[in-house]
Amino acid sequence: MTRIAFGSCMRENKPAPIWDAVAQQKPEIFLFIGDNIYADTEDMEVMLAKYQKLGAMEGYQRLKKVCPIWATWDDHDYGVNDGGAEYPMKVQSQQVMLKFFEEPTDSPRWKREGVYDAKVFGPEGKRVQIILLDTRYFRSPLKKVPKAEQKKGMGPYVADDRAELTMLGEAQWKWLAQELSKPAEVRIVATSVQAVPQEHGWEYWENFPQERRRLFKVIGEAKANGVILISGDRHLAEISKLATDDPDNGAGYPVYDVTSSSLNVPSGGNVGEVNKHRVGEHYRLVNFGTILIDWADKDPLINLQIRDEKGQVAREEAVRLSSLKGVGKAPARP
Known about the structure:
Elements (H helix, E strand, L loop, with lengths): L2 E5 L10 H7 L4 E4 L11 H13 L1 H9 L2 E3 L3 H4 L11 H11 L16 E5 L6 E5 L10 E2 L12 E2 L11 H11 L5 E5 L18 H13 L5 E5 L5 E6 L12 E5 L18 E6 L4 E7 L6 E7 L5 E8 L14
Parallel strand pairs: 1-2, 2-3, 5-8, 8-9, 9-11
Antiparallel strand pairs: 1-13, 4-5, 6-7, 10-11, 10-12, 13-14, 14-15
Helix pairs in contact: 1-3, 2-5
């Protein structure tokens, strides 16, 4: 596998010319990583109708002929804005989603709680593992900033470091550790919300700092080399990098988080938003992401890219596979 495309945040009732730009890249797989529709409902008939609008888009139909589409969800396609484990229709929502994305009947996703999944592609020496996380089904409630204390341009949430809170739930955490222990050269881990950024106050892993630290610690403990995170949700695109010497980084090597959002509803805002981990500048227009792997090189080159509505590269970071290796280490903080 050499060409992976991904994206998030698709308003099913708005035009989406970007689909043709995605298809023109001839990806071997497209990863739909959240807010694939904007359902926000407990009525499964309403949700199904919105999926059908997505499925009827001519560009989406053309992409399906180019490559397989594999999906996880975020809040709006899960069923409720900023929602987590408390959403009462999550079992039904999971069934609707899996049916729309034509999940094989023998897939474990039909039988377990949550839509997380993983697969390994390619021969030994060139294996790409793709892991789709579910950051909704089990997630604990978020802690809000009192409205009077909320800062302009910042999100409404503050970090909650209580040990009993969870992002993934214990069953998914155990599964993730097992998956990361499987052999692969490159691992693309899709998390619908950002994992590396820490400052904006919207939904991200930093809502639960202990869980965020646990994510990087699990990577290190599994000795899982080659991990690259991809995320969405933000209606902007950026590449973030957690440095090896960051006290929260237990992976033992730098961890990149490539955020692509939105496919057809960009924010146009967030000018000057702080992200101490950002590489370069963020991108505020319509976009999708691509990861290109050059296996011909002795030390494979991985290009992490944000592409615009025409398919042109808007942001890019080139990474050698050898730089995504470490022996693992314990974070400096518990």
